[in-house]
């Protein structure tokens, strides 16, 4: 499979995930905010997180679909998933019965399933980052060769 096809597929998966969860959080804003308010870790900042997180997810999605910002978007998505996984792990240390604040059908996952799901997305991010960096080097090299003084077409 071509490198660009793999990158595009991973970006598509991330875009769907982030758009879906962002929209779900805004549609069920009250439920989302309440579930954050029950968290021993995030309760003091429930309102800013409830408003800000969906917009961060939308921003990262936008970064992923704009080719110029794609690599930064992949890094941002990786950071988001690491933070989400750290949060889930922290929740498990406090209370395994706390409600999920994910949004949509992802709320149906158990905490261990969340960790597995997030880990899969973390691995996809790392893979896409490595592939995108290689792709950027190839494109830069092609551009350099195309406009080189030694190129007879120049």
UniProtKB/TrEMBL annotation:
One Pfam family it belongs to: MauE
Main location: membrane
Domain Methylamine utilisation protein MauE: 5-130
InterPro entries noted in UniProt: Methylamine_util_MauE (IPR009908)
Any GO CC annotation of this UniProt entry: membrane
Location(s) in or outside the cell: Membrane
A biological process term (GO) from this entry: methylamine metabolic process
Keywords, comma-separated and alphabetical: Membrane, Transmembrane, Transmembrane helix
Topological relation to the membrane, as annotated: Multi-pass membrane protein
Transmembrane spans: 12-29, 41-66, 73-94, 114-131
Designated name of the protein: Methylamine utilisation protein MauE domain-containing protein
Native source species: Niastella caeni
Lineage of source species: Bacteria, Pseudomonadati, Bacteroidota, Chitinophagia, Chitinophagales
């Amino acid at each position: 499979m071509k490198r660009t096809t793999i990158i595009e597929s991973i970006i598509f998966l991330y875009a769907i995930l982030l758009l879906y969860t962002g929209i779900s959080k805004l549609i069920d804003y009250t439920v989302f905010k309440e579930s954050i308010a029950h968290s021993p870790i995030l309760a003091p900042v429930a309102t800013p997180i409830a408003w800000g997180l969906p917009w961060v997810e939308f921003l990262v999605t936008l970064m992923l679909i704009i080719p110029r910002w794609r690599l930064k978007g992949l890094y941002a998505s990786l950071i988001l998933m690491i933070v989400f996984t750290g949060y889930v792990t922290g929740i498990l240390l406090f209370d395994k019965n706390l409600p999920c604040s994910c949004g949509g059908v992802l709320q149906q996952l158990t905490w261990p399933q969340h960790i597995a799901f997030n880990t899969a997305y973390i691995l996809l991010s790392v893979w896409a980052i490595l592939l995108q960096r290689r792709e950027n080097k190839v494109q830069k090299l092609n551009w350099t060769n195309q406009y080189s003084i030694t190129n007879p077409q120049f």
